[in-house]
Amino acid sequence: MERFGGGGAYESAAAEQVSRQQERHYRLLSELQALVKALPSLGHWGGGGEVWGGVGDDDTGWCCALTHSLSPTGLKQELFHRHKEAQQCCRPHNLPLLRAAQQREMEAVEQRIRQEQRMMDEKIVLELDQKVIDQQSTLEKAGVSGFYITTNPQELTLQMNLLELIRKLQQKEAESEKAFS
């Protein structure tokens, strides 16, 4: 009969664990409510083209594209120096023609730089959009409430705020676990 009833120490430890878990849940709920109050109201959540940040600190190749793009300043300086050298070697009566040709060349380079920058910007935006979709899909599959694939700016803002709440709760939980350790 002893093994079916009266396991006092075991029941006491289980009850204590349930109590700690309930306290933790109440504390987290209270912190969540405080964080929600600190957020802007839904009426102020506009979709000003915001893109929500990463779920974690994962490596992404798209951010490096910004630093590895061609340097328009360096390209223009090189062209300027080449033009200056050509002007110094040019006969005075040909100088107006040379300058006109150089002006057309400079305008063509500037146009090419603008076009390449626009293409780079479009590529980065597409990659960011895909990253957002991947994150939404991952969080939806993980069962995180409020996450699904959407491009609606208000829904994206809501998801960004949900992620921020989750991040803050994780930080607070980690801090409280360190305090109890």
UniProtKB/TrEMBL annotation:
It comes from the Eukaryota. Belongs to the gonadal family. This is DGCR6 protein. It comes from Thinocorus orbignyianus. The lineage of its organism: Eukaryota, Metazoa, Chordata, Craniata, Vertebrata.
